[in-house]
Amino acid sequence: MKEVSERLKSVINGAETRLRQIDIAETSKPILPGGWSRRQVMGHLIDSASNNHQRFVRAAQQATLEFPGYDQTGNVRVQAPQEADWEMLVSLWVSYNRYLAHVIARLPANKLDTVCRIGSGQPVTLGFVVTDYLAHMVHHLQQIGAVDPA
Q: Of 20, 39, 138, 148, which is least packed with CB atoms within 10 Å of its CB?
């Protein structure tokens, strides 16, 4: 997991610079017609960090993990990232993910095969959850222009 942790830190460092350069007015506009704004995507990425933080730590301590699914629309509606300060969203996302890189690097190798059941999805391993977290993040960062397409 040390390689995933290092890749996460690299993505964070590159994206942070670009996120802080986005014109504030642009952060409130939908990326695609009828879609989410950059602020809403950042709120979603913060949710992802929060949910996955719990998944990583709990799965590393248990024989299996049962975790609820994620209502992205409900979370965006309740948390209202569209109304949040852009710099605050970016700072929280950066800090939280730097901490997650720290956590990921320290996940016990013998726990990476822990079976995780998240919502109604198919069972996956903790190792998959970690690598999928990074892939999901990169996908959304590409959408908002914070990282280049692979």
A: 148
Q: How far apart are CA 104 and CA 4, in angstroms?
A: 7
3-state secondary structure 79-129: HCHHHCCHHHHHHHHHHHHHHHHHHHHCCCHHHCCCEEEECCCCCEEHHHH
Structural domains of the chain sorted by starting position, each given as residue range(s) with its CATH number in brackets: 2-143 (1.20.120.450)
Counting Cα atoms < 13 Å in the Cβ hemisphere of 147 gives 20
Distances (CA, A) of 13 to 3, 7, 96, 120: 15, 10, 13, 34
pLDDT in tens, 29-47: 999 888 999 999 999 999 9
- Site of tokens 């986005």: 22
Please tell me the total number of residues recorded for the chain in this structure.
150
Q: Which two tokens stand for residue 54?
A: 């719990």
Q: Based on C-alpha coordinates, what's the Rg of the chain?
A: 16
Q: Which residue has the tokens 């892939």?
A: 135
DSSP β-bridge partners for residue 30:
37
